[in-house]
Amino acid sequence: MSWLGIYLLGIVGGAVATLVLAWRLRSSAVRERGWMLFVPLATVAVLGRWLQTLLDAPNFDWAGARLAPLVACTRGYQLYYGPLKGPVLNTIYAPLSYLIYTPTLLLRDPTWLILGAGVIGLVAYFLPVILLCALRGRRQPESWILPFFGLVLFVFLSFHFASLRMSLEGTIHDTPALGGAALACWFLYRDPLLRWHTLVFSAFCTVLAIWAKQVMAPLALVLPLWTLLVHDRRRALLHLGLLALFGVFVSGVMALLFPARAMAFNILQLPASHPWNGVFPSNLLGVASYFYQEIYLLIAALAIIVLLERRRSTLPWSLWLGQQRWMLFALVGIANISTAFLGRVKLGGSWNSFSLTVYFLLLAGLAYLLQRFEDPSELGQRIRVALGILTAAIILFQLQEEARFFKDYLGLNRSKEERVYRFVTAHPGVAYFPWNPLPELLVEGKLCHFAYGLFDREIGGFPLDAPHFQQHVPPHCRYVCFPAGRRDHRPPECLDRYLKDFTRRVELNELPGFECYERNP
Fold first, then answer.
1. 415 with 396: CB under 8 angstroms?
2. Residue 85: phi, psi to the nearest 5?
3. Is the alpha carbon torsion for 472, 477, 481, 487 positive or negative?
4. 429-478 tens-digit pLDDT
5. Ramachandran region, residue 90 (left: φ > 0; alpha: ψ -120 to 50; beta: rest)
6. Structure pTM?
């Protein structure tokens, strides 16, 4: 059965479940019955969107390359190397962004490795959102409808924002950092008393998030500040002490697992050495313009909400924040603007840098909606109706979009990574794939340079000399092959020099969609 057939079968199942619900809920209130009738199709739409993300991941040019460093550790390689030796990969991220995918090492095929990593990434990203919605649920089925609709809305908005969509595509290092930071916030959000065990869990998740992606560092300042604002100085000092304790402990473990100097070079020195993207001040203005396009609606909506809520309250700010706990996520998102902006304005940064802010502002909006669901006033009623209508419209639109994807989907055996894997298996050592290091690593146990990792080294001022470069490319390969469009995407100079011996463009039947160059005779 085709993927479209499987998906249509899911829609039929959702429609049947809707009819069953309509019959069983015939004695319920009209509004509750109307909302619950959308639950089956909403579930199909969400699962379909997640499945679409997973199936498309092996076609994402970064997916296998970002798993290669972890897989290489099982083949005798190190995760981090210094500037003068070792294969060069895209290892500018903290180690937990790789280690979180350790369960995928049970798999041997690159496509299934990427799919397994995709599942882990989705869980890391959406688990805090599910937990946030679950806090508002009760034992009665009707009480779960609106939190469920809030989750559905969050899922599809995540794929609407360019920054969050990039953080969810393929295997990327944003999801463990975002999820860990959101869990750290969730522990504080769920416990207004901020008991000591809450601070323990939150502090531990904070440290893990920073060790997943170092740009999450502002979290270690914002969360104790929140504790100070809504509780007292003593509890804030305890929070800071726990952060320091876990920070020293986890840092010590990382220093034991990986060579400290090489790790510091990759995750601190090299990113700090990257030049600015463009000339001041036009580069800052350009990034500010992109940032504005991405977050202006969220910022405007949250600003209006804050103004309205403050007008309705006479409480001091500290007590008001204790009531409006959704503001915790907003403060984290605002604090992350600094590192999000810095990541984008550096050469090599992309839209996913903004996810550090967008993700938490979106969480803040969801938490506010969940709080408003319990409001019996006319405003709360209007919010519930608006959410129901908006979610229903999005579901119907998404079902059509997903059906088109599954109709055109060629199958897992036609993905980029699978095509390279089959070619390398049939012709070991014949070709070098600068953007696809994972298949050759799995087949031959050899790790080759990754093109973008070489670019990172060069713009940071640490170019490879010829012997170092030649040490980690196939010694007598006949072809060098790129996914379509990647040959000229920020090409590193050492790779360009190497390609001077590969000038004849050829089409290989086993590699449709790849740009291949044959070695000169």
1. no
2. -155, 165
3. positive
4. 899 999 999 999 999 999 999 999 999 999 999 999 999 999 999 888 99
5. beta
6. 0.92
